[in-house]
């Protein structure tokens, strides 16, 4: 049993079963033993791979979209350029390199990286040193003194989520407990039904349905909405999940990944990535509550094509060796093909009400 496993068992024995959100928060972000605190999880030697690690096209197109939004906002100086959970820093490095074609943008940008992991902060430092980034522990650390251009790729999916299971016509919260027989961590249902009103609109679900709610994600989306309404700017949230609440037919999407394979989320706490699908409609509603206008979500394949993926790929292919060309084409395919990342991954844009329609979105995609 690993150290975090011991700690969780003690906590549960002293205080009773814990909700999945608390389990996720401890397993991912415990100051010593948390998954993200203690390692670089990305790449082929790690546990999973993300869009910016698959292809430079991803970060480049995001960078061009943000630079375009900056131009449309009247080229404010300074502008706060922020990323939530930048991983190795690859997305931001590709974005800033591509955005050099927009005169003045890189000089106007003040870079803020919201990152909890000391290991990943070090990687970001080596890639982004030239842009003198400032690191923040949370969005709260990012100033409110100028317009904000923000990107978050695969960040919301690691924020804590809670689950409720439909049982005999009532919703009961799914909790993590310790099995006295073998000392293993196990899922259990709270014997108490969830308070009426919490799960409005989901009364029709049949027994066994799982409803996922993520107050931590929604609070962050609301805060982003508040900031964009006050500061102006644009936030691009890219992640995997459903466009509408319950859009996955109330499935259980809580999952663990280790060594590029699916794993038992309770087996080795702190040693596997824990995620769950993002409910984009819930994020859009929360950001509107904060005062922002929300657009989308649109599927990643559509989003990247609208941002000019094909043109940019063509341009890169002109100066590529045959081996590089193969990699570029395979990467573009992986990012956009519906059966790969093109459909499950989606992009949501948040702006101040009345701001121009964000690059990659259409006026009719305003979330109402
Ligand atoms: N955006 C990157 C990495 C995604 S992995 C990419 O696309 O490759 C999730 C990132 O969020 C990691 O950088 C992780 O360390 C960071 N992270 C996770 N939980 C966090 C939290 N609560 N606060 C700040 N950063 C966090």
Tags for this model:
alpha/beta, 5-stranded antiparallel sheet, globular, binds S-adenosyl-L-homocysteine
3D architecture notes:
With 368 residues, this protein is α/β, with parallel strands linked by helices. It has helices at residues 3-15, 20-29, 51-54, 56-72, 90-98, 105-108, 118-128, 215-231, 280-290, 300-306, 309-318, 322-336, 338-342, and strands at residues 18-19, 79-84, 109-114, 134-136, 148-153, 162-167, 170-178, 185-193, 210-213, 233-242, 255-258, 261-263, 273-275, 278-279, 293-299, 345-351. The strands form three sheets. Strands 2, 3, 4, 5, 10, 14, 15 and 16 form an eight-stranded mixed beta sheet that branches. Strands 1, 6, 7, 8 and 9 form a five-stranded antiparallel beta sheet that branches. A three-stranded antiparallel beta sheet has the order 12-11-13. Helix 4 packs across helix 5 (90-98) and helix 11 (309-318) runs antiparallel to helix 12 (322-336). The longest helix is centred in the N-terminal third of the chain and has 17 residues, at 56-72. The chain is globular and about 65 Å long. It binds S-adenosyl-L-homocysteine (SAH).
